[in-house]
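[09:14] KT: can someone run the structure on this one? pasting the chain below
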Amino acid sequence: MKRYNIPKTDLSVSSLCYGVMRFGARVHGADMHELYRVYCEVGGNFFDTAHSYACWYPNGDGCSERSLGECLRKFGNRNEVVISTKGALPGQGKVYPRPDDCMTAEVIASDITTSLERLQIDQIDLYTLHRDDVRHAAGEIIEILNAEIARGRIRYIGASNWTAERLAEANSYAAEHSLHGFVASSPQWNLGRANHNPIGWDGQFDSTAHMMTEEDIAWHRQTQVAVMPWTPTAYGFFDGATGRNPESFDNPENRERRERARKLAEELNATANQVAMAYLLAYDFPVFPILGTTNMAHLVDSLGADPLSLSPKQRDWLLTGRA
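[09:31] RB: done, structure tokens below
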């Protein structure tokens, strides 16, 4: 798998990131280890998890981070992989009780401590805030995170579900004060146009999540800040999946995009799912889609997006139908 440096870091990561949200909950033991092995065997080295994963499963609280730590120890390749985890997420009902304000130095420090203990590592390569909280000035948040960098517990910082406006505010503050800014952003983004706000852990629409907008794309193109899209396959919609949350992307516009993805896939000897992810990789700023599957066949298929190289014309044709 191809590797690229995340700008303004020394992190060299594979083009496709593996999100292990359901490790330890939906997949365990030998099956989980095999998924990890196959991903690493083809050159994958970029893993994404979070403090909150997978709290909504029975006895799932913290199992994603703990299971990723288990894989690191089993395969002994901690020095070869890049670990991204997230924190500062507001409460998710009874399964994930939280303080009202999660964007404080105390809560963030506590989340980092817990994540390090679960992963059994000394330092997090990329620490990402799971949500934004506009009650706090972006500069205040940057100061909190830089204090953790100074402590040596995290190396670089990212922001999940933040708007370009807030990202710009944060990074401007960082630049003005000679501090570390955000090196990556993680919105929902894929070839599809969603019918509604992203779906949260409980199957309900999540108003705190953020979908990539044209304004965001323009900002990332200008700044070259990396993007780590979640749900890059639109829950498998472009391969005709009708399982998890099919109502999220089933609309006439997306059906037309799916047909174009299928046509291009035939030309490229690929699958429509691979073409849909190659669409994201074809942008002129760094993009590292997060694969979230625990199905081996789906993982292998998704990894096949890495060799594909779409032209800007092909990318735009998939989206609009116009060359």
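[09:33] KT: thanks! The chain has a mean pLDDT of 95.
[09:34] RB: yep, looked fine to me
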